[in-house]
Amino acid sequence: MNFIESIKKRAAKKKCTIILPESYDERICEAAKRIAEEGFARVLLLSDDGRPLPYQEKLTSPAIKILDYKNQRDFRELAGELYTLRRSKGMTKEKAEQLLLDPLYYGAMLVRKGTVDGMTAGACHSTGDTLRPALQIVKTAKGIKTVSAYFLMAVPECKYGNNGLFLFADSGLVEFPTEDQLVDIALASAKSFEQLTEEEPVVAMLSYSTKGSASNDRLKPIIRAADRLKRQYPNLKTDGELQADAALDKKTGEMKCKGSRAAGKANVLIFPDLNSGNIGYKLVQRLAKAEAYGPITQGLKRPVNDLSRGCSVEDIVGVAAITCLQA
Length: 327
Fold this sequence. Notes:
alpha/beta
């Protein structure tokens, strides 16, 4: 059983309902059909004034519900809740009703209320448009200061990481993380890796330098974050700053960073900025033919996950399963 199949099997035990609000994208409807067939979640799709969805004649499973959301009795009630939630930010009642016509905002309100267990979107929206409603409406979990995003990478025939399984962060949200944000991202990523894989996380704070082999001001946040993690969380296997080869390869890690608890064993890779994180995951995805699931959001009260606009049906199904497991 491969990784994502094990995720689906565990997700099925939770009996979650996931909203896929971009219901007029053919990939979304095909994914909804497949999720229902595989039986790991119930799916809520949104209809716009009753206009038929793609392949609607195939969406007949009792595990799929199609909601004509603009004509629901509670639409104005939800708009009122959105107004109350955001009025300190300048929200008006009229603007709240207008925003709620956007299926992503409507979906985020259902996630907030617990009507659904999570939302997966982004097949035809940018990351900003997908996550903005989540940040404004669902908001961050208690004690969390930094919402970040990661990719789960499953690399075939790979001896590194956890038999080719890795978490890359932040690869989708925080552009230039500060020292504090790097610590937050590393801790959240370790927890996410353990939650999804049931394996021990080994965290590498990545850089183009290993343990002082280079020095400049841009390295300081990475070095300080790595030091803090080791001091404040002694049970966490982590080290930094580490070059990628030192983080992954045992011989190189031992040569460059002898005695390290993480060098040569890392399965959670924390990138210094969004540039490197995004480039890194796409290189591995294309060159190593890796499966890339994400960006998966971490740090929200309830799960809302983004999809790449180039996602496949398989990607949507996989991220929906991960969303169930986070719920």
